[in-house]
Amino acid sequence: MRITAQLIDAPKETHLWAESYERDLRNVLALQSELAQAIAQEVQVKLTPQERKHLAQTRAVDPEAYEAYLKGRYHWNRRSRDGLGKATQHFQQAIARDPSYAAAYAGLADCVSILGW
To answer: Which residue among 30, 41, 76, 94 has the highest number of C-beta atoms inside a 10 angstrom radius?
Structure first.
């Protein structure tokens, strides 16, 4: 997977920073952490030691579970009854692929809270 991140100063229309990252999809959570730290450094945000520790903690994620999670979020964002039903299915698929994938449980909880089950 390849991600290119850019920081733009919109009012001034100036390019501040850009970086490309290539990683295995299994390491998507590590990439998110690395990207968050790089952006925080570029915008000169001071992270506490606890925040740095939290960002450094990552684990591998099953690519199919991650894909199911992303599909679930897509359908959840539609906020229709049909979309929420599909989102629920995708989150359940992600959980079946990786029972320790907390984000999938959070997505499922979001669906349940909206649907009122």
So the answer is: 94
